[in-house]
Amino acid sequence: MPIIKALMIQLLSCLCIIPLVVLFPSQTIPAWILLQAILAAVISHYTKMAYWWIPMQLMFLPAIAVALTLKISPMWFGVCFFLLFLVYGKTFKTQVPLYLSSSEVTKALASLLPRKKNFTFIDLGCGCGGLLSTLHALRGNGNFYGIEAAPIPFLIGKARTLFNKANCNIQWGDLWKQDLAHYDVVYAYLSPVPMPTLWEKVCQEMQPGSLFISNTFAVPGIAPEKIIRLNDFSGSALYIWRI
Predict the structure, then answer these.
(1) What pLDDT digit, counting tens, does each position of 143-202 carry?
(2) Which residues contact 232 (CB under 8 A, 6 or more apart)?
(3) Which of 2, 133, 140, 149 is spaced 20 to 30 Å from 57 by Cα?
(4) Can you name the residues that pair with 185 across neighbouring β-strands?
């Protein structure tokens, strides 16, 4: 996991600074903190960590130093960590943050779904369930399913679909344990990291003629059958593959 690599780089940077602290004891603590931060950022760059890790590595130790000067009770850090876990789940492991599909995406998806024929649809990582509840209202001939691992988004999504009929259901669990063979349309709005592995799962499990749709993130090296570019707040694009 990148977070383990990042922590190892922080530790390595600290170890590199220790001999300098011994040799030049007259330097101030802020100077050593700044040097360690720069060294961690440089090592992260040359070890080819994703670009967004560079500023995080640069600010890690300085942020700890500033927090210590504020004398904040450790309890509040624990509370913040717990709340973030409830909202984002195991993002540190999955590298999939919480993304919410726009209304433009919902309209585009609705236009791709059958209007009369019965079908099954699953949203892998359905967040707060807004997409599913809206599609359910627009396409009553479909059976809609969602899977979500983060506790608070799951509870919100479950509450939104609680009074729907049995053809709209959200489950709490791991998307990788879902058998995609049961669905005519599989939709995902994840991140670049899991797309190659997800494509392998799609090819192994989805039935011929079914649709795999990814919001924003393409499968590397696999040309989609169709791309729908949308004019929403995030400049979304739907990548569509027919199996």
Answers:
(1) 999 999 888 888 988 888 777 657 888 998 888 999 999 999 999 998 888 899 999 999
(2) 102, 103, 104, 105
(3) 149
(4) 121, 211
Q: How far apart are CA 57 and CA 44, in angstroms?
A: 7
Same domain, 153 and 237: yes
Strand residues in 74-225 grouped as ranges (E):
119-124, 142-148, 168-172, 185-188, 211-215
* Residue 8 to residues 40, 60, 225, Cα–Cα distance (Å): 10, 13, 42
Number of Cβ within a 10 Å radius of residue 106: 17
Residues 109 and 202 reside in one and the same domain: yes
Number of domains in the chain: 2
Q: From the CB of residue 120, how many other CB atoms can be counted at a distance below 10 Å?
A: 15
CATH code for the domain of 233: 3.40.50.150
Strand 211-215's sheet: what is its strand order?
Answer: 168-172, 142-148, 119-124, 185-188, 211-215, 237-242, 226-229
Q: Residue holding tokens 């300098």?
A: 20
pLDDT value for 203: 94
Q: Is the dihedral of CA 159, 161, 165, 169 positive or negative?
A: negative
**The model's pTM:** 0.76
- Burial class of 232 by CB neighbour count within 10 A (0 to 12, 13 to 18, 19+): middle
* First-to-final CA distance of the chain: 31
How many whole angstroms separate alpha carbon 169 and alpha carbon 157? 9
Judgement on whether residues 7 and 66 belong to the same structural domain of the protein: yes
For the purposes of burial, counting CB atoms within 10 Å of the CB of 105, is it exposed (0-12), middle (13-18) or buried (19 or more)?
buried
